[in-house]
Amino acid sequence: MTADRIIPKSFGIARRFILAIVIFSTALTLAGTCLQLYIDYRKDLSNISRQLAYIETSHLHSLINDIWLFNERGLEAQLKGILALPMIEALRLERKDGPELAVGKTTSRHLISHTIPLSYQHLDKTVPLGTLHITASTDHVIQRMKERVLLILFTQAVMIFFISTFIFLLFYHLIGRHLAVMARHASALTISNLHEPLQLERSQGCPQDAKDELDLLVDSLNSMQAQISDYLTERRQIEDTLHEQATLLEDEIAQRQQAEEELNVINCSLEERIADAINELRRKDTLLLQQSKLAAMGELLNNIAHQWRQPLNNIAVSIQTMQYLNKAGELSQEEMDRDIKAVMDILFYMSGTIDDFRSFFIKDREKREFVLQEIVEKTLNLLRSTLDDKGIMVKVEAEADVRATGYPNEYAQSLMNILNNAHDALLERQVQGPSITLVIRQEGSRSVLTVSDNAGGIPQQILPQIFEPYFTTKGPSQGTGIGLYMAKTMIERNMGGTLTARNTAAGAEFRIEL
């Protein structure tokens, strides 16, 4: 593709540029010519007006006197004198008392008429004498304007031609020829010759450091060519790299597909193993729960044995006393009824203990709302004998009507495991004045129960491990290590609460939130 096809000759920048100059210069010349002609025309009309004013000031007085004195000869001489003035073509005098008098003849095409009233001042009275009609010719004005138009148009045309030619040559030398070079370079530019820079045809005497806007444009184009060339080179390298990576990726995909097939085979057996492992974990959880219940039952049976020891002794003493008094014949019916009632009260108390023991391990079928203080009292009643026997003081601080939603028996079992843990710690460390404090309160929408002791706390290094299954600091014969684990499981997993432990200044504190 050639530069001529890119920029047609009829629409070349230089041609449009010179055409715009010619049109603008012509329009400006015409406007200037019209303005000059208008000024000259007004000036010539002004000269005619001055001529008429001259007639009024110089000839009018003599003309009026001749009319007043009826000096026909002098009057005719006055009119001929006025007619001899430049641009005056005809005169016509209309008199009040006398015939009309006319001199001159109108032969011009362009005329100006002027009328002057004539009057005479006689004895402080103005006497009208007539009217003087003056006809002036403007043909010479029009002719002079035509001559000036032709002269101005000719001189301006010559000037426009030379100026336009100079501007065209200057534009071509400074801009046009360089634009042509740039157009040819752009039309011949391809991917294969991007490395060839654009160079303008500068004259030999032009200094190298005197760069103009075209030089800056050329530098920008050359820089852009270099950047495009670098970009294409980099793109080819990237495409080659991508092709290599695509090949590697295809190999990797094939290997991955093979690995997936092998993995599917492994997954089939792995799913079976996972299912077996889950079943085994569930079986172990069930076993742990059973072990925890058995351990709790053992603790409760031990507590019940403590609780029953004194009542059974009281029953035995009452029966022996009644038997002795009966043999001696000293047992009255009133005394026998009183002793039997006392024995029956003890038996009813022991029967209630059995009911508490049985209900303690009944599994709750669904969550329900319960009062924390009732659960705490129920649990403490089962442990009261053991705690009192060891001299452990139990203190309960409770806000009124603090409620929670969950499984009451599991909550009680968790609390029993925590109390047993505190009981064992107090006995193991032989604390003077052992005590356990239970605090029940409402914090926002959650119920909180804290159980704290004064056994000195849990060693910091094992504190994070106390809720793990089978973790214990006691010997094998003293604990299973599943009590706290099951307590945390029942509180958090089954009821959605939290069970945490921390050390205080006096000992350990367990916190249950629901």
Automatic annotation (TrEMBL):
Its main location: membrane. One of its GO terms (molecular function) is phosphorelay sensor kinase activity. Residues 303-514 form the Histidine kinase domain. It catalyses: ATP + protein L-histidine = ADP + protein N-phospho-L-histidine. Signal peptide: none annotated. Pfam families: CHASE5, HATPase_c. The chain crosses the membrane at residues 17-39, 149-175. Residues 221-269 form a coiled coil. GO terms for cellular component: membrane. It is found in: Membrane. This is histidine kinase.
